[in-house]
């Protein structure tokens, strides 16, 4: 049965309020031990993993919505990363896990006596690729292979044209994201949209399909297909640099870290000022989360505030 017009309109309105692509995913990364086994009955058995670490990584995955980020890394996982990647990650909170046999706290909780976890994220914005690509469209839509010397020279020019471009405003990002969501409902427009397949950067060959200049920015983003091999060079690739270009500004990390420190110390008035700066300039999900949380108590920390949130 087809969707009713009322339900359709409500869904369109809901999607129009969400920044970014229509379909979004969040990922939680954690490390720990787990027990593998089969659960079910004789008629149906499912392989699964059971442990405290599994429950915690599920919490991280679901909390990406709350913090407005794509990735949430536990402190334990963060410690396993290469130092160069650790420096590019951002601590966004610290939490404690309530014990299962404790329903309500009879006295203020002591997070240090419980299991705690630091939360980190790796900031990037995939929409940067589509927006910048549309503003500085090269002659071909395929990213040249690094194995071809001539293509390598073209790639240098493609990279330079990106770097010379001024940063797109966040308002433009929201407008283009909303435009993509609206086109999802326009079947006629969708039928005219052609997304050509392309190999990932570093693969042997890219397809020869090209996108005409009349196509919108949503057609510029090329997704990889097939198996991909991990390469440490991806952390310094032009694509990742452009996805992170709004976050390499020193003011971003400095202001957020200063605001987070004020928040942990209970100085919520100063934290409010710093989080407002970061959210207003970078449309930052974690800053927006803390602003909403502090507003509930009029920017005054609760009596027994310890600096740790409860999971």
**Terminus-to-terminus distance:** 40 Å
Largest sheet: 5 strands, mixed
Form type: globular
Low-confidence stretches: 138-174, 187-219
Number of helices: 12
User: What's the gyration radius in Å?
Assistant: 23 Å
Mean pLDDT: 75
Task: Give the helix proportion (percent range).
Answer: 40-55%
Spatially, the strands of the biggest sheet line up as 1-4-6-5-7
Can you write the helix and strand succession as a string?
A: HEEEHEHHEEHHHHHHHHE
Q: How many beta-strand runs?
A: 7
The computed structural class is alpha/beta
As a percent range, the share of strand residues is 5-15%
Q: What does the model show?
A:
Helix content is 43%, strand content 12%. It starts with a helix and ends with a strand. It has helices spanning 5-16, 52-67, 75-79, 83-88, 127-135, 149-163, 170-185, 187-192, 238-243, 250-265, 268-282, 285-295, and strands at 27-29, 35-40, 45-50, 71-74, 90-97, 115-121, 309-310. The protein has twelve helices and seven strands. The protein has 311 residues and is α/β, with parallel strands linked by helices. Strands 1-4-6-5-7 form a five-stranded mixed sheet. Strands 2-3 form a two-stranded antiparallel sheet. Residues 138-174 and 187-219 have low confidence and may be disordered.
């Amino acid at each position: 049965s087809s969707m009713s017009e009322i339900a359709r309109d409500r869904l369109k309105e809901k999607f129009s309020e969400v920044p970014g692509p229509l379909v979004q995913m969040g990922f939680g990364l954690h490390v720990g031990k787990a027990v593998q086994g089969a659960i079910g009955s004789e008629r149906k058995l499912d392989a699964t993993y059971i442990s405290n670490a599994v429950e915690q990584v599920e919490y991280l995955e679901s909390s990406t919505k709350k913090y407005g980020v794509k990735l949430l890394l536990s402190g334990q996982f963060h410690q396993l990363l290469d130092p160069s990647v650790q420096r590019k990650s951002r601590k966004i909170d610290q939490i404690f896990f309530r014990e299962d046999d404790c329903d309500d706290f009879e006295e203020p909780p002591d997070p240090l006596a419980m299991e705690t976890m630091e939360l980190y994220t790796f900031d990037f914005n995939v929409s940067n690729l589509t927006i910048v690509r549309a503003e500085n469209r090269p002659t071909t839509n395929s990213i040249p292979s690094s194995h071809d010397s001539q293509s390598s020279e073209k790639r240098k020019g493609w990279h330079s044209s990106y770097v010379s471009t001024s940063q797109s405003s966040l308002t433009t990002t929201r407008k283009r994201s909303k435009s993509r969501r609206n086109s999802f409902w326009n079947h006629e427009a969708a039928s005219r949209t052609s997304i050509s397949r392309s190999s990932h950067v570093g693969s042997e060959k890219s397809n020869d399909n090209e996108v005409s200049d009349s196509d919108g920015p949503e057609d510029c983003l090329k997704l990889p297909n097939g198996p991909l091999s991990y390469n440490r060079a991806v952390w310094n690739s032009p694509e990742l640099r452009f996805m992170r270009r709004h976050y390499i500004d020193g003011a971003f990390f400095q202001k957020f870290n200063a605001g987070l420190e004020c928040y942990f110390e209970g100085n919520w008035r100063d934290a409010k000022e710093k989080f407002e700066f970061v959210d207003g300039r970078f449309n930052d999900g974690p800053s927006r989360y803390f602003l909403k949380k502090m507003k509930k108590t009029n920017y005054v920390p609760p009596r027994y505030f310890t600096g740790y949130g409860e999971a």
